[in-house]
Structure formats: C-alpha cells, structure tokens
Design brief:
- The chain is mainly beta.
- It is built from no helices and ten strands.
Length: 132
C-alpha cells in the first residue's frame, strides 16, 4: 500500500504530520512515519486523538477559502451529517454505512476542492452527531 499523507489532531490540540501505510479504523493504534520511507513507525493511541485527516498536501492552500457546509443543490453519495467535537469545532460531511458508535468513522468533506480527502473522526472526541 502506498503511504498516505496524514495530519493528526489530538484532543488536547497538538498536531502531528506524517505518513501512514496501514490505517485500520478498528485498531486502537495508528502507525505514523515521519518521512514515509524505510523507517520504523511510531504508534499513536487512537483514544487520544480528535481526528486523522488524509490530505493532498501538508501545506494546503492558504489562498483557498474552503466550503465547510453543503449547498442545497449538493447530492453527495452517502449520508449528510454534521458533527461537533468536544473543542467546539463543527464539521459537515458525508459518511457511508457507519455512525459514531464505534471507535470512529470516515467523513468526506462537502468541498471537493478541499485539501482534506477525508478524515477519520474519533467518536470519543465528539459531543454531537446528527443527520442533515
């Protein structure tokens, strides 16, 4: 499997950037590599995380204003949901066949031009989950 660029946000606000080549949503740990090639991974405890963002680039595009909500005309695949994290951040996106009952779930942002391809939201870091 090709290494994916990820940005990891902890519940306490810390941010770590790196790569993973074996993200397993049901696992209690995430394996992170700093440079993506030939090194031993470090293990991050999922229950300490807020979310894991699968990103196109680590830098993003500071000049782009990302759309964080759905337009009424949007017809995405999956369920449209809104989540709220314990730190107050609110996000909208789509999920397919899952909810906040397990360790976490994948959320696809409403803006296809977003730097975030998808994110894995950790259920423990949520205070609300609702269908739109």
């Amino acid at each position: 499997m090709e290494a994916m660029k990820i940005v990891v946000r902890y519940q306490d606000g810390r941010i770590v950037k790196g790569y993973t080549d074996r993200f397993e949503p049901g696992s209690p740990f995430l394996h992170l590599f700093w440079n993506g090639a030939g090194e031993s991974p470090i293990e991050l405890a999922i229950n300490e995380l807020k979310a894991v963002f699968l990103v196109k680039t680590f830098e993003g595009n500071r000049d782009y204003s990302e759309r964080r909500v759905f337009h009424k005309s949007d017809r995405p695949l999956g369920r449209k949901v809104q989540i709220k994290f314990v730190d107050g951040e609110v996000m909208q996106g789509t999920i397919v066949g899952s909810d906040a009952q397990g360790i976490g779930f994948f959320l696809i942002p409403p803006d296809p031009q977003s730097n975030n391809i998808s994110l894995f939201a950790v259920s423990k870091a949520l205070i609300s989950f609702q269908d739109l």
